Amino acid sequence: MTTTTVNAPPGRRALWQTKVPLITATFWVIKVLSTTVGETFADFLAVNVGLGPVVTDLAMLAVLAVVLTLQLRRTRYTPWAYWSSVVLVSIVGTQLTDFFTDTLGVSLWVSTAVFAVVLAVVFTVWYRQEHTLAITSVDTPRRERFYWGAILVTFALGTAAGDLATEALSLGFRNGVWIFGALIALTYLARRLGASAVVTFWVAYVLTRPLGASLGDLLTQDTSLGGLGLGASLTSVLFLAVIVVLVAREQRLVNRFGVAEKGSGPLGGRRRDLGWALGGAVGITVLGVVLAGLHPATTASAGGAAGAPVPAGSPAVHPTTGLGDLSRFSAMVSSVQAKMAQDDLVGAKANVKDLEVAWDSAEAGLKPRDPKDWSTLDGQIDDVLTTLRAGSPVQADCAAALSTLSTTLRTFDGG
């Protein structure tokens, strides 16, 4: 185990061991996968479980505080503690960007610029205090605190930059995979040609956030939106399974050989590490394709997550936007209206929950097609949710909100 003697007051010496992993192929694979798991889990709690964004944000902040405290109290690199912290920082970093964008209405251009400046400030202060930004030098308590502060901002910046590219610039998640993958490849090439190891590491660390999100969207989004249709839950389980296997191997190697020497044992080495990393990536690709073939995809006419059929005699579509076929959402709204007409508030709330989940799940595929009209519909769906979930719902208000949403869906339908 590599150790570093830290300068301390006269008569005192503190011996610290490195608290972060070696930068290997396995490191990057786990990093990308943890990004997707973090994001989908937060969405699952906020939407599917119904905690809402505020409760989810507070809960994740609390859990992060506990896990990060455990990480900071460790005396050496412990894979399970380190990667648990990374996943939770990924969640909170994503929520931070979403808070600026969705709650405060800050432009993605502005939030990307702000987080870039904040990251530059963190790096500047860190360098002035420690005279290094190398991950291999994270071997004192103060350096580790700087490190985790920088990690949090990189996730926020990566989220903002990724959303800017795939949503605001309407590039979509498929193009996002190619674009961010190519940028990471160019960063690796620059390192091979002699660029700074520290600079290229942090550039790649920021880029892996939008790459992981784009890969996750590719697997989760419905086939009608250009994805493989696995859904968030199945994708999260798949990614988490690979993370657990790779982290368990990391833990075994560290327990046997230590951090600096873990690559020299019979289970280590660059070739073996690369083999495990490629195995994880290939395994996800193969299983993703196989499961996509077995998983029943939802189509525009299948009623989406709720499985509600498109009502007979529905009005003709008006292809005034690029959002595509919205008939499954119209069908869900019709089912909510039917429940309200029967004074079945419980049933209406259950059906509107299906609408909420389906709409949020389709965001990555729909929003890049026409951000302006998507935002209009998103606001109207929020209005429906607000009126139906009021302490004492007023039927007239619910009916008006549903009618407005139904009309806009039919108008925007470009199926």
Automatic annotation (TrEMBL):
Instruction: Report the protein name in the record.
Output: Uncharacterized membrane-anchored protein
A Pfam family the protein falls into = DUF347
Domain of life of the native organism: Bacteria
Listed A to Z, the keywords are: Membrane, Transmembrane, Transmembrane helix
Query: Which InterPro entries is this protein grouped with?
Result: DUF347
Organism of origin is Microlunatus sagamiharensis
Signal peptide bounds: none
Transmembrane spans: 20-38, 44-68, 80-100, 106-126, 146-165, 171-190, 197-216, 228-248, 274-294
